[in-house]
């Protein structure tokens, strides 16, 4: 299909699905080219904040323990829980681009700036062209579903002529 036809079909499907959802009926179709999002957990950063909070609680006996001390201790605990449950790292795989959460924004990477994708047991590494750092997605540290991610990335690599290396064989 041409791009114009794809856009028209997608636009009409969105409109019909919106109308059907207002009436409480299931949508007629889903967009097969929609981006797939793989979410993980930020265990190390969350653990760091929680350990600071526990450390502050343990050293409370040696201080007077005013109210700001309690606010600081509880704030570290809340930030740790926020990072673990709410601000999760992700990899979004769309038709022609990959994106992930940066420190303050979403980083989008086009297929033309990817050198190769390496799938090893328990991790996926995306090597970028130039001096950009590589993107590493781990099963043990970040709790990503690496096998499903590798399958989608393999399809992405085939569609965009990017080298895909499978080291699990």
TrEMBL record:
<keyword id="KW-0812">Transmembrane</keyword>
<keyword id="KW-0472">Membrane</keyword>
<protein>
    <recommendedName>
        <fullName>Methyltransferase</fullName>
    </recommendedName>
</protein>
<feature type="transmembrane region" description="Helical">
    <location>
        <begin position="68"/>
        <end position="86"/>
    </location>
</feature>
<keyword id="KW-1133">Transmembrane helix</keyword>
<feature type="transmembrane region" description="Helical">
    <location>
        <begin position="43"/>
        <end position="62"/>
    </location>
</feature>
């Amino acid at each position: 299909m041409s791009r114009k036809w794809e856009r028209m079909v997608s636009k009409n499907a969105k409109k019909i699905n919106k109308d059907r959802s207002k009436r409480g009926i299931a949508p007629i179709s889903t967009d097969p080219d929609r981006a797939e999002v793989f979410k993980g957990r930020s265990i190390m950063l969350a653990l760091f904040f929680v350990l600071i909070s526990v450390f502050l609680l343990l050293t409370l006996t040696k201080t007077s323990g005013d109210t700001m001390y309690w606010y600081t201790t509880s704030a570290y605990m809340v930030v740790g829980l926020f990072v673990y449950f709410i601000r999760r790292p992700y990899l979004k795989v769309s038709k022609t681009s990959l994106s992930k959460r940066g420190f303050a924004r979403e980083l989008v990477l086009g297929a033309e700036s990817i050198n190769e994708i390496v799938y090893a047991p328990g991790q996926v590494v995306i090597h970028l062209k130039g001096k950009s750092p590589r993107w590493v997605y781990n099963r043990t540290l970040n709790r990503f579903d690496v096998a499903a991610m590798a399958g989608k990335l393999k399809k992405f690599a085939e569609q965009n002529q990017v080298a895909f290396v499978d080291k699990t064989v």
